[in-house]
Amino acid sequence: MFGAYDRNLSAIEHEFSVALHADGDALAIDGNSADVSNAAGVVERLLAAALDGAQLTTEDVALAAVDVRQKRETQAVPDTLIRTQRGREIRPRTPGQRAFTQAVQSRTLTFGIGPAGTGKTFLAVVMAVRALKARDVARVVLSRPAVDAGESLGFLPGDFKEKVDPYMRPLYDSLGELLDDTVVTKYLERGVIEVAPLAYMRGRTLSDAFVILDEAQNTTVDQLKMFLTRLGANSKMVVIGDATQIDLPAGVTSGLLDARRRFGEIDDVALVELGAEDVVRHPLVAKIVRAYERTAT
Description:
- This protein is of the alpha/beta class.
- The protein has 10 helices and 10 strands.
- It folds into 2 domains: 4-77, Ribosomal Protein S8, Chain: A, domain 1 (2-Layer Sandwich); 83-296, P-loop containing nucleotide triphosphate hydrolases (Rossmann fold, 3-Layer(aba) Sandwich), CATH 3.40.50.
- It has a 6-stranded parallel β-sheet.
């Protein structure tokens, strides 16, 4: 529960301006009554999770602190979604990530919209691999539009696959963290996992599959409509993107922004918005995102 080098205790002290002292089998908390009460609530949640065998981190402390402050009656920490090939437990680390993964579990179609660093792509791939391992689906289809940030595919060296592969690299990286390289290669060769540009989706029906569209802010309205209508029986779709990083030509409407307006009230469709508070990269990334948000307004 304390974490490596008591980091979790230090995180609780930082969150609530309290002092924690371990004394035998007791943990004393010093501070004003409100802070002590909140800190005790976090300790109780972490202890329950630790007794269940969870490997707790400072991110778990931060999420538990949010829940305690907002008086949310939730489990101590979110369930572990999957373990990486190195044994690391993967679970939501922020309220937005928790809402996103819960939506993916409960809905057929989920839109995840948020800035860089919020873990949208990685968590979507985690949920896909989880469904594949549980045999809820027979295959995973990962797609991206081949739209670049100011450069042209034609200027890149190599054949079409070599030109497109750099656009797919974030998806390959996520797979590589969750599965052994030989397993990824085997799945790709057998078609159990397919990584393909959006253009390859036209005319297909994707049944018994977990389908992810990444960088959806760079789809046009017609392209996203085409993709969404590929949904087949016993399939689940996740569409993710960053509405602040659109690389489409001027005057072209983003399919993701259009979908945000269209699908908010449709049953079995979830639209989850993540923000700077959900950034899980370097702490500076959250400050960068907020700086750009201030400029935009």
